[in-house]
TrEMBL record:
It comes from Wenzhouxiangella marina. GO terms for molecular function: ATP binding; biotin--[biotin carboxyl-carrier protein] ligase activity; DNA binding. GO terms for biological process: regulation of DNA-templated transcription. The gene is birA. This is Bifunctional ligase/repressor BirA. Biotin binds at residues 85-87, 108, 112-114, 179. Transmembrane segments: none annotated. Residues 16-35 bind DNA. It catalyses: biotin + L-lysyl-[protein] + ATP = N(6)-biotinyl-L-lysyl-[protein] + AMP + diphosphate + H(+). InterPro entries: aa-tRNA-synth_II/BPL/LPL, Bifunct_BirA, Biotin_CoA_COase_ligase, BPL_C, BPL_LPL_catalytic, HTH_11, Transcriptional_repressor_C, WH-like_DNA-bd_sf. Acts both as a biotin--[acetyl-CoA-carboxylase] ligase and a biotin-operon repressor. In the presence of ATP, BirA activates biotin to form the BirA-biotinyl-5'-adenylate (BirA-bio-5'-AMP or holoBirA) complex. HoloBirA can either transfer the biotinyl moiety to the biotin carboxyl carrier protein (BCCP) subunit of acetyl-CoA carboxylase, or bind to the biotin operator site and inhibit transcription of the operon. Its EC number is 6.3.4.15.
Length: 314
């Protein structure tokens, strides 16, 4: 964790003088680092004559605590304070670190969603996780990878007591009519296999108001969750690892029932916007064996693949 943030994490008031002495830097340097934390989105209050204090305690991620909950055969887990994007880090470092591997970050300065849209990632406000994984089934067997990822995350959150979850095709976790999380899949390899995937997933834990988010959203705190982020991270890593192994071994069959139960769009009228085609409107009718969204339109049923597709319930 950032050394200054580690000292402020208890939510108590710390004088600039004490912080400077503990970190062996000047008080002016402390002020600059406080400003840097504020720029990342942390609410650090300055109290006249009292020092600096976080608006609320900071529940930092700890790689050792996470690994201790994963057992002896756990995949490598790393926590970094700040990255541009966890997916981008794993992509850059794939030659030095063979899969499987899990990377979490407290802050992403260039977090990405589908179609390059930004993912708002302030410190401690969510779980920002990417995992690399080797699949023997090849590209042809991974058309449902984003759907299986969503099911794995939803199973974990339901076990944590979150109710009324939904999965919005192709990759969104929704609850209370707002977005709770999403995933970004990047795959390299051949159609026959093997291939490597980097699966990035973000879950909102406790977001403050952010006017740059252009859609309805929610977070675990608003849904009544008061658990431990490290335990949540460990559970998510384990669920995803189990899901990837099952998908590689036997395909989407073990996920299909949960997907149907959680399908947020089922029976809704939707509008699909595609960059190279006119918008498509119809009633969502589930998915096919390739994970494509089925739409009943005025001219018949059509299957829509992932990629440059936007889905909006209307």
């Amino acid at each position: 964790m950032n050394p200054l943030l580690a000292r402020l994490a208890d939510g108590q008031c710390h004088s600039g003088e004490d912080l400077a002495r503990e970190l062996q830097i000047s008080r002016a340097a402390i002020w600059k680092r406080i400003e840097a934390l504020r720029a990342l989105g942390l609410n650090v209050q300055a109290r006249a004559g009292g020092g600096y204090q976080l608006e609320r305690p900071f529940d930092g991620l700890d790689a050792e605590r996470i690994r201790s909950q994963l057992g002896e055969k756990a995949l490598p887990v790393e926590v970094r304070f700040q990255v541009d994007s966890t997916n981008a880090c794993l992509q850059r470092e794939r030659r030095e670190h063979a899969p499987p591997r899990a990377l979490l970050a407290e802050v992403q300065t260039a977090g990405r969603g589908r179609r390059g849209r930004p993912w708002i990632s302030p410190p401690g406000a969510g779980l920002y996780l990417s995992m690399s994984w080797r699949f023997d089934c090849g590209l042809s067997g991974l058309s449902t990878l984003s759907l299986a990822t969503g099911v794995a995350a939803a199973r974990l959150l339901e076990a944590q007591g979150i109710e009324d979850l939904g999965l919005k095709w192709p990759n969104d976790l929704v609850c209370d009519q707002g977005k709770l999380g999403g995933c970004l899949i990047e795959v390299q390899g051949s159609a026959e296999g093997p291939c490597e995937a980097i699966v990035g997933i973000g879950i909102n834990v406790r977001l403050d108001r952010n006017d740059s988010i252009d859609q309805a959203w929610t977070d675990l705190h608003r849904l009544g969750w008061q658990g431990d982020r490290n335990a949540l991270a460990a559970g998510l890593i384990q669920n995803l690892a189990d899901a990837f192994a099952a998908l590689d071994r036997s395909g989407f069959e073990s996920f299909a029932d949960d997907w149907r139960r959680l399908d947020f769009l089922q029976g809704k009228t939707v509008r699909i916007e595609q960059s190279s085609r006119a918008p498509l409107e119809g009633r969502a009718a589930g998915i096919d064996e390739l994970g494509r969204l089925l739409i009943d339109t005025a001219t018949g049923r059509q299957a829509v693949g992932s990629g440059d597709v936007r889905v909006r319930a209307i």
